[in-house]
Design brief:
By secondary structure, this protein is an alpha+beta fold. The protein is built from five helices and 24 strands. Strands 3, 4, 6, 7 and 8 form a five-stranded antiparallel β-sheet that branches. It has a five-stranded mixed β-sheet with strand order 13-14-10-9-17, with no helix packed on it. The chain starts with a helix and ends with a helix.
């Protein structure tokens, strides 16, 4: 009797220690599907197994993305949306999780996949690079460049699309390379939100050719990582004795002043020394040599405190400060005057040389000599004698003779 009572006690103790439903089989979900719902976007959907017994247990689902980028998470929902580049395909799997207290049991995996996008190998666009820029508050431009695939025929035409959240748009303006292939796209205005943080920009480039099927290419960009900051505004530089003072305003951006960092380029024009300073505020004071002159430029970028860093802005215009700034200006003016005078003298010398050569090439035309012989030289001489100082002597000859001679000589 004592042994029998001990067995009953142990049985009751084991029953109390065993969680309710521990012997229930966990079944995998059913009707698992993958559907492309937008550019580079996949909808994962499944249904609970209708034969699953819950017994006051909680059912969740473990989801694992296998490619193109591995990711694992769990959810209580029966659908999930993921953004990924799909040109090389997509693969994922899901399983059921049965939770009761601290006990967790899982089912077998159910797997699904999407095939790669069709097209010939090495025909996709390569080296895709994109930059965004806040043109005015609330407006963002987008510029992307790429290279043709090494296997793309010469008649390949590429076409770019971008997607931001639910908005998809085709490139309105493409630039071409020497072979008349599209290799650049510009959107002057987009639906990208200037103040967005960590959101993705999807770039999709497909193509067409008469000689081959062009394989599409997709790439994802963090909008903050590809944004090029604007130049700082209202920059003021002054030199007071040995103190260089600089102030400016933050670039055009929806982010606050504390979200920016700056680089300050300082060149001593007297010694040639160069300094590159990183500054976290929009003003600073620096001790310098007051007898020198300096050239200064400033540029900006977003810092990591508010969002991911992007690209540095262009440099600002160059500012000059220093005591010998006027001397440098006078030196430039004198140099310019010397060059101008030298050019003027050279021009005069060239003109003189040209005139001298012209006189040699085209000398004055001399008076032509009489090269025709007189057919009556004797009679002409007699007529000339008759009209000269000997006219009296000739006329003293017998009248009839002189007249006949004269008639024959002159007429």
């Amino acid at each position: 009797m004592l042994a029998s009572g001990m067995q009953v006690f142990l049985l009751l103790l084991w029953t109390a220690a065993t969680p309710q439903g521990a012997g229930v089989q966990v079944l995998p979900p059913v009707n698992f599907t993958l559907t492309v719902s937008a550019l580079a976007q996949v909808l994962l959907h499944w249904e609970p197994n209708p034969a699953q017994e819950q017994n006051n247990s909680t059912i969740r689902y473990d989801v694992e993305i296998l490619s193109p980028v591995q990711e694992e998470y769990d959810t209580k929902r029966t659908r999930s949306v993921r953004t990924a580049a799909l040109h090389n395909g997509f693969s994922a799997r899901v399983r059921s999780l049965l939770l009761q207290g601290h006990l967790q049991r899982s089912s077998a995996w159910v797997e699904g996949n999407l095939p790669p996008l069709p097209g010939a190998a090495d025909t996709s666009a390569t080296n895709v690079s994109c930059v965004t820029h806040v043109t005015t508050p609330g407006k963002v431009s987008l510029c992307c460049t790429w290279l043709p695939g090494r296997g793309a025929p010469e008649d390949t035409k590429y076409f770019l699309f971008y997607r931001y959240e639910a908005h998809t748009e085709e490139c309105p303006t493409h630039s071409k390379d020497k072979r008349n292939r599209n290799t650049e796209c510009r959107f002057a205005n987009t639906q990208i939100k200037a103040g967005g943080i960590g959101k993705l920009i999807v770039i999709h480039i497909n193509g067409s050719s008469q000689r081959a099927a062009i394989k599409p290419f997709q790439q994802l960009f963090n909008q903050n990582a590809i944004e090029k900051a604007n130049i700082p505004r209202n920059i003021s530089i002054s030199l007071e004795q040995n103190d260089l003072l600089a102030m400016w305003e933050k670039p055009i951006s929806p982010f606050h002043e504390e979200c920016f960092e700056y680089e300050f380029s300082l060149i001593n024009l007297k010694s040639g020394n160069k300094q590159m300073l990183k500054i976290s505020s929009n003003s600073f004071q620096l001790r310098v040599d007051g007898s020198s002159s300096y050239s200064i430029r400033v540029r900006a970028n977003h810092n990591h405190l508010c969002r991911a860093r992007g690209f540095w802005s262009d440099w600002s215009e160059t500012f000059y400060v220093g005591q010998n700034k006027l001397e440098n200006s006078i030196a430039w003016i004198l140099t310019l005057l010397c060059v101008s005078m030298s050019c003027t003298l050279l021009l005069v010398a060239v003109l003189c040389k040209i005139n001298h050569v012209w006189s040699k090439l085209f000398p004055p035309i001399p008076t032509p000599s009489n090269k025709f012989r007189d057919p009556f030289p004797i009679d002409y001489e007699r007529a000339r004698t008759c009209t000269s100082s000997t006219e009296t002597e000739v006329c003293s000859l017998p009248e009839e003779l002189s007249c006949s001679v004269l008639d024959d000589s002159v007429f």
